[in-house]
Specification:
CATH topology of the largest domain: Immunoglobulin-like
Number of strands: 39
Oligomer: single chain
Distance between the termini: 30 Å
Helix content: under 10%
Number of domains: 4
Structural class: mainly beta
Number of helices: 1
CATH architecture of the largest domain: Sandwich
């Protein structure tokens, strides 16, 4: 339970606030940056047979700002709304309107939002456990929330009976604790029960989940502590915004008779490509030849169709998913009046990867060219020339990934090459309306010296011998965006080759629903998230020294 700030102010009143206001830092000297810490508690930590009339008390190393206690004190089991809290100087004192419950373990957690008068916060959350009976419940759950500003996230634990569904929008947790700055959490002194956990960025600190505005994380399984198991570890969370509102088309713009720009009410996933159609209202079907999400706004999609006449049309979108991979609508129908303006726009190169003139072309790496609109890929003659050190032509294979991305794969690693130059033939690259490529058509890159590169390899195993689904891995260099994503083979072996020296973090997930995306699960009705791992230690890579044996386990 979270103690209300209103009750704090009623109890300590204006006299104490005035006294606290006079306790400023002495003049001169460096500012006080030492965080407060708990020096004494009543009752003692792990005490048993505690009197039911005991008032719980925390004494700190220095005076506490009473306002900071709001939303940062958690009591389990929930004592109801009649608990009284007093904040005076270095002490926080809690009294129950009725006596403590007999023969039960209490857990009281102080969050890191509690601060001293100079706004220094607790370095880490503090948990006090004690029992009014002869023994102390000692079950524990620990894990980590992988999120920005994880110290703002609390982990909630609920008693879960057989076939029960827990709706965190209307039910408050039996236990709650706060994450530290690294996202680590620990729920201690738990009763031997079956539990369901959620991680919530509880913005209004009322211990109820607001689907419309608050992020939540779902575990990959419930936690059963009813047997001999004393400790559940490695409970991992990733947060999502569980917006369950139905997706709709907000607007549809038409530049000409071939192009549509569709704005959805919220972000949808780029996998939107199957079983969709555009047709005239009288029934004549018109093919959608290309779909592309806006790279900067996943609410926007560009579509290319066969030429349309000025008529009433219907756009049908099926199998729609959000950016978390969850189905959000069975189908969307949108009627509009088509325009018959001719397409007069020429295609351009939107981007190349690696960026033009960069010094980051790996030996044997594919070059990717992204176009501004759908290209006629029926052209069979070579669309480009690839030159080694600007003089020698190199053989390479072209491959279209959709109608807007051209992949150029070399048939060698370009050993000894310093520069590569790509020339695109604009007379052969035309959009579906027949317009030739315009803009820049020549690009060059510095090729990395193979002696500066290295590799990372290892094996991923699974505690669950019955688990199935591909294991997707991602490698992220410290301080940069993730550079690669691969799927481990059937044995769990993996290898990232041709990587630069530096520090890397490896992560991965088991794709149990086989959709190629990490599935975050849902809260109510409950659907577990897919299991994932994040390596606790960075992998240090040195040039020419492959780092092998980086083995990790996906926990149950």
């Amino acid at each position: 339970m979270k103690i209300s700030l209103i009750k704090i102010l009623i109890i300590f009143g204006f006299g104490l606030y005035s006294a606290c206001a006079n306790q400023g830092a002495p003049p001169g000297g460096p500012p006080d940056q030492t965080p407060p810490y708990v020096v004494h508690t009543i009752p003692d930590s792990n005490a048993t047979n505690v009197s039911r009339t005991t008032a719980v008390e925390f004494e700190f190393s220095e005076s506490i700002d009473a306002r900071s206690v709001e939303g940062n004190l958690f009591i389990s089991p929930n004592p109801g709304d009649d608990a009284k809290l007093k904040v005076k100087g270095r002490k926080i004192r809690m009294e129950m309107a009725d006596s403590l419950i007999a023969d039960i373990t209490y857990t009281i957690t102080l969050g890191t939002g509690i601060k001293d008068l100079r706004r220094n916060a607790l370095k880490e959350s503090y948990t006090l456990g004690f029992s009014t009976g002869e023994k102390l419940d000692r079950k524990q759950i620990s894990g980590r929330v992988f999120a920005e500003k994880s110290v703002e996230v609390t982990v909630w634990s609920y008693f879960l009976d057989t076939n029960d569904e827990i709706d965190p929008t209307i039910i408050r947790p039996a236990y709650a604790t706060q994450c530290d700055e690294e996202g680590n959490f620990r729920l201690a002194n738990l009763a031997p029960r079956n539990y369901r956990l959620f991680a919530v960025r509880d913005g209004n600190k009322n211990q109820l989940y607001d689907k419309s505005s608050e992020q939540i994380g779902v575990t990959s399984s419930d936690v059963d502590l009813r047997g001999e198991n004393q400790y559940a570890r490695n409970m991992f969370f990733r947060l999502m915004l569980e917006d369950t509102s139905r997706v709709r088309i907000v607007s549809l713009d038409q530049a000409d008779r071939r192009h549509l720009r569709v704005r959805f009410s919220r972000a949808v996933h780029p996998g939107l490509k199957d079983d969709n159609r555009l047709s005239e209202v009288n029934g004549r079907k018109l093919s959608i030849v290309d779909l592309l999400p806006d790279p900067d706004n996943p609410n926007l999609w560009s579509m290319t169709t066969l030429p349309r006449d000025s008529s009433h049309c219907e756009l049908l979108i099926k199998n729609l998913k959000d950016t978390y991979g969850r189905p959000v609508s069975d189908s969307i129908r949108y009627e509009f009046k088509s325009v018959a303006n001719p397409d007069t726009t020429s295609p351009r190169i939107r981007s190349v990867i690696p960026p033009d003139s960069s010094r980051m072309l790996f030996p044997g790496q594919a070059i990717l060219a992204n176009f501004s609109e759908a290209i006629d890929t029926s052209q069979t003659d070579s669309l480009f020339t690839l030159l080694q050190d600007s003089t020698t032509q190199v053989r390479a294979i072209e491959r279209w990934n959709g109608l807007r991305r051209l992949e150029i794969w070399p048939d060698s690693t370009w050993s000894g090459t310093k520069w590569m130059r790509l020339n695109l033939d604009s007379t052969k690259i035309k959009d579906v309306a027949g317009h030739q490529l315009s803009g820049s058509k020549t690009f060059a890159w510095r090729v990395l010296d193979p002696d500066t590169l290295s590799a990372i390899s290892g094996r991923i195993t699974d505690r669950d011998s019955l688990a199935w689904g591909r294991i997707f891995l991602q490698l992220k260099k410290d301080g940069e965006e993730a550079r690669e994503a691969v799927a481990a083979d059937e044995s769990g072996s993996y290898r990232f080759g041709a990587i630069l020296p530096g520090k890397y973090i490896l992560s991965g997930f088991r794709d149990s629903d086989n959709n190629g995306l990490y599935s975050f699960g849902s809260t109510f009705p409950f659907l577990p998230a897919e299991r994932f791992f994040v390596a606790q230690d960075t992998i240090l890579v040195r040039a020419r020294w492959p780092n092998e044996g980086n083995n990790y386990v996906i926990e149950k």
